[in-house]
Amino acid sequence: MVSTRTLDVPGAHLHYEVRGTGPVLVLTGSPMAAAHFAAPADALADTYTVVTHDPRGISGSTLDDLEQDSTPELRADDLAAILDDIGADSAQVFGSSGGAVTGLALVARHPARVRTLVAHEPPVLGVLPDAAERLAEMDDIVETFHRDGVGPAFAKFMATSGMDTGEEGAPAEPPEEPSAQDLADGARFLGHELRGTARYMPDIAALTAGPARVVIGVGATSGPLLTYRTSMELAARLGTEPAEFPGGHGGFVEAPGEFAGVLRKVLAG
Q1: Residues of the chain whose pLDDT is less than 50?
Q2: Domain 2-129+200-268 CATH class label
Q3: Phi and psi at residue 89, to the nearest 5°
Q4: What 3-state class would DSSP assign to 252?
Q5: How far is Cα 186 from Cα 197, in angstroms, rounded to an integer?
Q6: What is residue 269's predicted lDDT score, i.e. its pLDDT?
Q7: How far apart are CA 39 and CA 103, in angstroms?
Q8: What was the pLDDT predicted at 178?
């Protein structure tokens, strides 16, 4: 059974869902909404109280100011507020893509709220040796969006990220035309989220100081992707070995049951 809830936070109204019983486990993405995590959440609900949500400005989580930028820090504070709302002092956290960056910010800002963070392919471009070039590419994508719209900007994003090559690790193209909500979420991502997420610089000292355990995750088939590079570099900076998950950047959608099984083992540590 899924309990659907709404929480008012400064500047936003957050949609989140709770299923299962046991220790609290948050599954978070950005810009991915709660719906993208439904299958792995169902698979984990026999062991955990699983919390999924729509990040602010995405899908069912609405904003007071539509021009507000989404930053990892804001999204981290939103997760802390959700934990408060369900009465959880701390949680296990799995974050993928921009949600992994949210998780890194959560550990830095609210370290006592996280027991283990599994950060799956965080696109933290600032850790790369060629960071300036990669960040300039992201700025160009944002400028393309404002000039030409969602379609051309998203195509450029896919190419820059390595997701348009047909290589394994790239998410499959959706079989249907995007919905109005898909287009709205894409515009939100490109216009108000991409730049802040890509430019977030992890606080290595905070991530290694404890009490949270931080694990970097990579997809088994993600080798061609930019997020594989950022993940491997961040793991090296943390002095840890990355955990390998099934599939690519969207492995939790591609093989949710298998992905959930690996996540259980990683969380058990």
Answers
A1: 167-175
A2: alpha beta
A3: -70, -35
A4: helix
A5: 14
A6: 83
A7: 20
A8: 84
Contact 173, 252 (CB under 8 A): no
CA distance 38 to 217: 20
Contact 210, 87 (CB under 8 A): no
Q: How far apart are alpha carbons 78 and 197 in whole angstroms? A: 15
Give me the pLDDT at residue 17, please. Answer: 98
DSSP string, 27-54: EE-SS--GGGGHHHHHHHTTTSEEEEEP
Predicted TM-score (pTM) of the model is 0.95
Pair of tokens at residue 4? 């659907």
Q: What is the pLDDT of residue 165?
A: 57
| pLDDT confidence of residue 173 | 43
Is the peptide bond prior to 256 cis by the omega test (within 30 degrees of 0)?
no
CB-count burial class (<10 Å; 0-12, 13-18, 19+) for 93: buried
Q: What is the CA radius of gyration of the chain?
A: 17
Burial of 179 (0-12, 13-18, 19+ CB in 10 A): exposed
Phi, psi dihedrals of residue 27, rounded to the nearest 5°: -110, 120
DSSP 110: -
Residue written as tokens 């978070």? 28
